[in-house]
Write a structure and sequence with these properties.
Elements: H1 2-11, E1 16-21, H2 28-35, E2 41-45, H3 71-81, H4 87-100, H5 103-107, H6 109-113, H7 118-140, E3 144-147, H8 152-159, E4 165-172, H9 175-183, E5 186-188, E6 195-197, H10 201-218, E7 226-230, H11 231-236, H12 238-248, E8 262-264, H13 275-278, E9 282-284, H14 291-294, H15 297-313
Parallel strand pairs: 1-3, 1-4, 2-3, 4-7
Antiparallel strand pairs: 5-6, 8-9
Helix pairs in contact: 1-7, 3-7, 4-7, 9-10, 10-15
The chain binds zinc ion.
């Protein structure tokens, strides 16, 4: 396997992975879908979740096909691994991912490295992961792969891989708007029963704080390949903000007029991500202010108190 990716790395330019990192319900899916309207940009979805918790055989691609039947993803898997992953391979990769790429593994890496086989396990997981991104580049012929994976430690490990060029955009959204969004049920489409995910405002605020703080702690590792963006700024001027992201990864800007708010999205093959957005061919971007009147005062204040230091830092007064 390593021989194969070394060949790809030598002959083709390295793929640019744009990690659009955000805590849940912060709008990364819609931005990923719209970025993919750019030249040579493919929005892959939340690739860290490819190996679970939902079994890959039960996951749907945004094109409507089950992931293991979607023509594009089958071609990617064949290119990356020489086969479409079976249950045994999926279980192995899930085990390797969970044993080597969580936040504790990054922060306590020296201690984990003293464990027998741990380094080899991490190498095995990362080798498969790098293969996957190189295969996406080869199959889609896109230079930029947008990934909305939700683990900061996974993003950091990606950034360390010499075969990839990783750029990190830290997308933040007002924690009160996020808490309001988590109160609304959203169906998670799979090939079987739909799952519904919701969170209380308190849990939402704790997750927001933890997930944003973690990426903030890892920021020095990304050097100049890091930018922060507020969802509210995107919602106010979507084309301007999308173009700043496209400049960040060095591909041409959108040709749409700056005032555009309605976008047609087609031909997408997104894995995971927010299911509300994935079944649509049209996306209309509007500032989302519903939380200001719909979130109760008590919830508003409890979210504010929990998230205060970081929220202020991001300009949420
Ligand atoms: Zn598909």
């Amino acid at each position: 396997m390593s021989g194969q990716w070394q060949n790809i790395g030598r002959d083709d330019p390295r793929p640019i992975v744009l990690s659009l990192y955000a805590s849940g319900r912060s709008g990364s899916t819609v931005i990923g879908m719209l970025l993919a309207q750019g030249e040579s940009v493919f929005y892959a979805g939340e690739l860290q979740a490819l190996w679970g918790p939902t079994p890959l055989a039960d996951e749907l691609c945004s094109c409507g096909a089950p992931m293991l039947s979607c023509e594009l993803w089958r071609a990617v898997f064949e290119e990356a691994f020489g086969c479409v992953p079976d249950a045994r391979m999926i279980a192995r990769l899930r085990f390797l991912r969970d044993a080597t790429s969580r936040a504790r593994h990054v922060f306590l890496e020296e201690a984990f490295r003293r464990r027998p086989q741990w380094g080899a396990m991490q190498r095995e997981f990362l080798e498969h992961t790098v293969h996957l991104y190189l295969a996406i580049q080869r199959v889609t012929r896109c230079r930029v792969i947008v990934d909305t994976s939700k683990w900061p430690s996974y993003v950091l490990l990606l950034a360390r891989q010499p075969a990839l060029e990783v750029r990190v955009t830290h997308l933040v959204r007002d924690p009160r708007a996020v808490a309001y969004s988590w109160q609304r049920a959203k169906a998670w489409r799979t090939t079987g029963a739909q799952q519904v995910r919701r969170q209380s405002p308190w849990r939402s605020a704790m997750s927001w704080l933890r997930e944003n703080a973690l990426l903030g702690m890892m920021r020095p590792f990304f050097h100049q390949h890091y930018m922060r963006m507020r969802y509210e700024d995107f919602a106010r001027a979507p084309v301007t903000m999308l173009n700043s992201l496209l400049r960040f990864v060095g591909v041409p800007e959108l040709k749409a007029p700056a005032s555009t708010r309605e976008f047609h999205v087609r031909g997408h093959h997104v894995f995971g991500a927010n299911p509300d957005r994935l079944g649509r061919d049209e996306i209309i971007v509007q500032p989302d202010e519903a939380w200001r009147t719909e979130l109760s005062l008590a919830h508003c204040w409890s979210v504010r108190m929990i998230t205060l230091p970081l929220a202020l830092r991001y300009g949420y007064l």
